[in-house]
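Lecture notes, continued. The same structure-token format from the folding unit now serves as the input rather than the output. Read the line below as a description of shape only.
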């Protein structure tokens, strides 16, 4: 038996994608920390565009700041203005060590939010050639980032408009955004469960998390606010930088737009899950049919027990609330759950 999520173990609520006034966000780093701490979060990564900063001095015993930044690559010979009908790729680089500010594959045209003096002080690593929107270059970029102390996430694939075949050629991402809430507000499509199942059916081993990607152009009390809509629950042994990063690398976390998963236990071919009150709990196994338990507002679902089919290559669990939000685990492959 393997207790993947235990009731007795703390879960740390995190936003791993966020923008401040140091790029195109409207709130300062200290303001972002304040609003997330007030909302019960324990972890925040401010990932400004092409702008790495160390916020570790803002960490407290009950609140952890993760160092990182967001890089992007567009299909031009260099930096180009945003093109609404062209694909591109955005990558969050989360530092495994809080003081790591290495800048991967520096290109002045991309690094537009940092002044000249700051650019001169950047610790530049990797190639400084023009960035290229091709698989070879992008995989090299990810590889260089990992070699220099980062773990990399694949951001908002629906918004990015990348073809599935190209996505499947990428190597080195530890996780993909299941929901990017900022993009979800724009298109109501940035819940990437279908893409994730396609990847799992193809044998791709990648985790999923969710994040706000907030810029805070709208007030926090507005329906258009892009804060607090999607988050990641991290199953870390403690709230320390090393422990949180190790939990992310292991896949010890789940994605959510509201519901909470309180317990998840594998026992041979059986799965037991307990959640906050929801409309439906589903076990996805890659087939055309899914096992599910459905309730209503008078009798919500809070637990479910499933049998994993013999033909299933993987399983993942989802809980759907009454507002349309979901909580989603990563995929567990047969060689994992059979050996628990």
């Amino acid at each position: 038996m393997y207790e993947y999520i235990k009731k007795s173990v703390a879960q740390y609520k995190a936003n791993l994608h966020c923008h401040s006034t140091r790029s195109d966000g409207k709130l300062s780093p200290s303001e972002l920390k304040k609003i997330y701490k007030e909302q019960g979060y324990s972890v925040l990564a401010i990932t400004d565009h092409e702008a790495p900063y160390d916020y570790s001095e803002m960490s407290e015993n009950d609140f952890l700041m993760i160092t990182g930044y967001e890089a992007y690559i567009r299909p031009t010979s260099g930096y180009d203005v945003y093109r609404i009908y062209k694909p591109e790729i955005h990558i969050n680089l989360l530092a495994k060590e809080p003081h790591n500010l290495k800048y991967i594959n520096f290109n002045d045209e991309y690094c537009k939010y940092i002044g000249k003096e700051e650019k001169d002080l950047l610790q530049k690593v990797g190639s400084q050639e023009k960035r290229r929107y091709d698989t070879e270059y992008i995989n090299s970029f990810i590889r260089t980032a990992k070699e220099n102390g980062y773990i990399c996430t694949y951001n908002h694939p629906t918004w990015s408009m990348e073809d599935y075949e190209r996505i499947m050629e990428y190597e080195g991402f530890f996780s993909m955004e299941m929901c990017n809430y900022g993009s979800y507000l724009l298109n109501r499509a940035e819940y990437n469960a279908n893409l994730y199942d396609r990847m799992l059916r193809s044998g791709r081993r990648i985790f999923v998390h969710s994040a706000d990607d907030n810029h805070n152009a709208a007030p926090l009390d507005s329906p258009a606010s892009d804060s607090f809509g999607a988050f990641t629950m991290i199953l870390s042994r403690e709230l320390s930088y090393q422990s949180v990063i190790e939990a992310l690398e292991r896949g010890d976390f789940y994605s959510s737009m509201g519901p909470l998963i309180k317990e998840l236990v594998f026992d041979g071919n059986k799965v037991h899950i307990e959640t906050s009150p929801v409309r439906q709990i589903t076990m996805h196994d890659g087939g055309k049919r899914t096992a599910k338990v459905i309730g209503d507002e008078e009798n919500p679902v809070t637990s479910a027990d499933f049998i994993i089919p013999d033909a299933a290559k993987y399983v993942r669990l989802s809980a759907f609330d009454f507002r349309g939000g979901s909580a989603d685990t990563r995929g567990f492959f047969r060689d994992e759950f059979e050996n628990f």
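Point for the exam: The chain has a mean pLDDT of 95.
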